[in-house]
Amino acid sequence: MRNQRFFLCMTVLLAVFLAAGCAPRQLTKGEIDQFDAISAKIAKAEKMDAKECAPVELGNALAERDAARHEATEHWENVSKYIGKADKAADVLLAKTIPCWEAKQVKVAPPPPPPPPPPAPSASIVANPKFVYAGKCTTLRWSTQKATKAMIDQGVGSVGLSGTKEVCPKKTMQYTITATNAGGPAKAVVEVPVYHRTTVHINFDTDKADIRKADLPELQKAIDFVKRWPDTKILVLGYTDSTGTDAYNQKLSERRARAVEKYLEDSGFVDAKLITAEGRGEADPVGDNKTKEGRFKNRRVEISERGK
Length: 308
Fold this sequence. Notes:
4-stranded antiparallel beta sheet; 308 residues; 4-stranded mixed beta sheet; alpha+beta
C-alpha cells in the first residue's frame, strides 16, 4: 500500500514536470521589437512590388521570419541567431526591390524655369523753356522705352508713353515721370525754376540815359522788387523804341540799363555783384512802334531774377 502511494506521487510529479517543459517560451519585449522591424522591412518591399521585382527574396524573407518566430518559442534554441538571419533576409529583399521599383517610376521632367522679367524701362523728361517767370508756362516733353504705363507727379497724373503737356508752376517745381513695366519702375526728373520780374517805364530824353526826377516813382518799383527778393541775382534789361538806327538803339539801351543798375547799387539794397545789365535795343517790343503810346511802352527797363 505504501509503495503504491509513492509510485502515484512520483507519477504526478513527473507529469507536472513534463507539462511545464512543453509550454511555449514567451518572447521578450526586445525580441518583439526586432520582429516588428523585420516585418516593417518586408511590408515596405511588398509596397514596392516585391512580388514582381524580387519574388525569391520575398519568399525567403517571409520564411526566415516565420522560422525565427517558431524557434523563438523553443526553450532550448538560440533566438538571436534566427532573428539575425531573418533580419538579413529582409535587408536582401529590400536591396533587390528598391532599385527595381525606382526604375519603374515615371521620370517627370522638372518644369522649365520661368521666363526672365523684361528689362526695366527707361524715361526722360525736359522742359521748354527751361525756366519761366511767374505767371508764365512751360511745356514738358517726355519719352519712355519698354514701358507699359507712365505718370507724372505734381497733379499731372497718368500720361501716354510719350508726349507733351503745358504746365504753369507758381513756384520752382520738380516734375518726376515714373515709367513702369513688369521689370520695375524707372524715373526721370526735370526742375523748372520760376523767377520773378517787374517792368519799369522810364522815359529818357533824346540821346540821354540820365534818370529824370519824373521817373523816380517808377524806379521805386525797382527798389521794391530787389527788397522783396534779396540775395537774388538780378538781370536789368534796357530797351528802346524803333526810332533811330539799330546800332544807336543798342548803345542807348545799354546806357539805360546801366543807369538803372547804378541806381539800384546806390540804393544800398542790392550787392553790385548780383546785378547784370544788358541792352536789347529795339528787340522784343511790347507796344506798337507806330504809335506814341506804343513807343512809350517800348522805352523801358525790365528787372528780373536772372535765370541760372
